[in-house]
Design goal:
single chain, mainly alpha, elongated
């Protein structure tokens, strides 16, 4: 740590970013690899050095490595995702380089979906107004909903918590997602063998229901009550049964 702090005080972070820019233009991959590796370890879990790197102009380089599918994206992807959890000043640099839209584009890369969604959830919770404006654009809502399309998604269960966080933070996003075809897709996952997944799915359905007023009757059109009743009757996990009861109460309130 003392060595890293000494390097930081000497302005080493900004110097490395300048060198990265030089060698990227030269096309020297070996030097780029060494420099980005060093920056990765310097910036890891250190907000001050993340801020220095962002201010020095590292973000477009990271985006370029990822977009071009360079081998260097093994460093670039975790770095840029971590920046969303950093200081507001770092996120300001992300914003200048269309960071929200860039994280949305990462949702098409299965291995990085969770990190990208967590980055968006954190950024939304910190700067709701401007991030929300982009997330609720129709094409971006479709991108979020498409996360639930494939039953072969190995990271599906890890997507639920950040997705719930997004919807809990933004009423506008809850309404926008609730008006899509996401509900039938969520219902298809309720037979998942992991009880924590079933619990989070029910929480997600409840969260969407809360955001749909005055359009909650849309929920009854999907005939979800029988499926929720099956969960309630056959479920061993107490928390899942309790959440299923909450969702059934939601549906009952629409009919009353």
């Amino acid at each position: 740590p003392n060595t890293l702090n000494a390097l930081q005080e000497a302005g080493f972070v900004a110097t490395l970013v300048t060198c990265l820019d030089f060698y990227e233009k030269k096309g020297n991959k070996e030097h780029q690899n060494q420099i980005l590796n060093a920056l990765f370890h310097l910036c890891k879990i250190n907000r001050a050095r993340q801020e220095e790197a962002a201010a020095a102009g590292i973000i477009p380089h990271l985006q370029n490595f990822i977009t071009l599918n360079s081998p260097l994206k093994q460093f670039a992807l975790p770095m840029i995702c971590e920046f969303a959890h950093s200081h507001s000043r770092v996120r300001q640099h992300l914003w200048k380089h269309n960071g929200v839209q860039f994280f949305l584009s990462l949702l098409y890369q299965e291995y990085w979906q969770v990190k990208a969604l967590e980055a968006l959830a954190t950024w939304l919770s910190e700067e709701q107004a401007r991030v929300e404006t982009i997330l609720i654009e129709p094409q971006n809502v479709r991108t979020l909903v498409d996360l639930f399309n494939s039953h072969e998604n190995n990271y599906f269960q890890n997507l639920l918590n950040p997705f719930i966080q997004l919807l809990t933070t933004s009423l506008a996003l809850r309404k926008a997602v609730g008006m899509t075809s996401v509900l039938p897709k969520l219902m298809e996952w309720l037979s998942h063998p992991n009880p924590s997944v079933r619990l989070n799915l029910l929480k997600l359905i409840h969260t969407l229901f809360e955001g749909m007023s005055p359009d909650r009757r849309k929920f009854t059109g999907y005939h979800m009550e029988p499926l929720i009743l099956v969960v309630l009757r056959n479920e061993d996990a107490l928390l899942v049964r309790e959440m299923a009861s909450v969702v059934l109460s939601d549906f009952a309130s629409v009919k009353s």
